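Thread title: Can someone regenerate the structure for this chain?

I was given the following input by a collaborator and told the matching structure tokens would be attached. They weren't. Posting the sequence so someone can regenerate them.
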Amino acid sequence: ILIAASLIRGVAGPAINASSGVFMTPVAKDLGVGIGQLSLYLSVSSIATLVWLPIAGTLFNKYSVKKIVLLGVFLQTIAFIALGFMSSVWAWDILAVPLAMGAVLLVNLLGPVLVNRWFAKNIGLVMGLMMMITSLLGAVFQPVLTNMISNNGWRFTYIGFGAFALIVMIIIGLLFLKNTPSDKGLKPFGYDESALQTSKQEVKGVSTVKALKSLAFIALLIFMIVLTGFAAFQQHIATFGLGIGLDMSTIGTALSISMIGSAIGSVLIGVLSDRVGIVPTSIGVL
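Best answer:
Regenerated them for you:
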């Protein structure tokens, strides 16, 4: 489950979802528009993600994970392939919506939902391993995509890699993913009935209404907005590299190294979260 979910996230995330930067300059140049005009579709994608996230979350409680993965794969990859046939900026703005909807299911929600269903201990480490595998796949795919664009053009890369991603993710999803451990007559990994009962007794919380009005929630919301804003810079590494005259091969290497850094950080953050707690780990990472 961990490997299958990680592979799907690796293809859907750093390969497709995070590849916008490597396409930005060649697409804008061919369409005869500015980077700023084309990159507006990233804002459309963010808005679509905002609206779709709470709706998508409910799907995991209603439908099997295989059906959700199929939905996510078709939304994301068909839109990605379609971009290879487009010649107007508005097409990127429109197709950004299904791209974002598919990414929410496959990248944002699939991994955490399955990890919490299948693992009962060391959740931080398991999530870190998932992010590590995802990032390492990104380290492989980012230079592949840059070389494909350099050698075959951005249209072929959209269509060819999109078709590859469609086939690979469908095979992995159908063959290896299961909804819950009970589907196979199992308990979650590390399941401990006595520890579970103790933890349930210790859990304390507040109502959703009260939480949404709390200073802590507002502070967390502001923190996440700022953090996400700075994290978005990674999408523009390729554009920045081309702007200062670097070739696509060098940019692909830079993106690959960036993903390796993400892989190391993912495991480190997961281990530290389990051992010293979330707050000290977050402060240390910042």
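Residues 89-118 form the longest helix (30 residues).
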